[in-house]
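Example record

The entry below shows one chain as it appears in the dataset: sequence first, then structure tokens.
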Amino acid sequence: MPPAFVHRITKYDPADRDEHGHYFGAEVAVSDHGPVEAAYLAAIAAFAEASGIDRLEIREPTVTGLVHFGAEPPVEGHGLSGLFPADLAGFHDGAEVPLPVALELVRVMLRDEGAWCRLEAGDIFTVHVGWDQYVYVGSAEPCPDAVARTRELGLFPEPMAASPYALELEGPEVMRAADEEFWEEVNAELSSRHSVLLEEAYVGNAARWHRLTPGTLGAVRAGLSPRALLTVWPELTPDDRYNAFGPLRVLHSDGRLASRQVFGSDTVARTMQGQQSVVGAEAAVSDLAIQARKERMQREAQLRLGLRHLDGVDRQREVLVVRCRPNGDALHEVIDVGHVRDAVRAR
């Protein structure tokens, strides 16, 4: 249950809003990286002190993905450099951080540097950073002194019924726990397949890949990030088929795995592990888009996509190109779906 008292904290004077609540004043919707930003952090600290909070839990963390929607450009390391190691150990769902670190995470989010998360202490205290410098602080206490302090800082605390960023656990996808029963099923798969691929989504928009064998299962399992979202996939084979709407899973010659979404405009698809040349895809998608526009209907077609791995050897894959609309919009992404029905998800 969310906290009973929620305040929206902004630098926007309510007097400069129209009848629909839209702000029309002179304040810009980005951080000043200066005194106003510092005022936000001081206000949150005041609410935390009034609520008796000195630690907060990271919930639903994400980092910059393929597309960044922030008002400012993302920075290297998603703004987390100096707060967490390069592999983001400690930045995961359920991780507890002291209040000073939590405030630095708020700073990262105010600056749109790439990382985002909810900061919560059960149903006692919450901090949610939204778009355009809107911050929502919830507390089990009314915190009148913190409200007054926020006004002294030049910000505007406004009572709200609830935070629009409160966690809602709903949706059609059913998650299961990565418990002993789950790992027994993985072991059974290994008995018949000898190896499978494990996708470890340790934060939103970021994943690591592991090849599981009877000999590596224990070590990989021990090194997984807490509360990671896991997906087990069959091994890649030369006969795998691909279709749109997902990342390309690439097996490098040295055994490393990577994942990358590929657009029709890409000539080079980059991953953290290296890069693969995408050959001929742009021309094929363009031709399909022209045909869709001429016929004023969506088109689909199967195309060959050449992948040049790090060892320099060309390999051909079948891809299904979709979303070529009548206006000529064309986007293709490729995903290994050869045995997608065998995927097992766990949290």
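Notes for this example: The longest strand covers residues 314-324. The mean pLDDT is 75.
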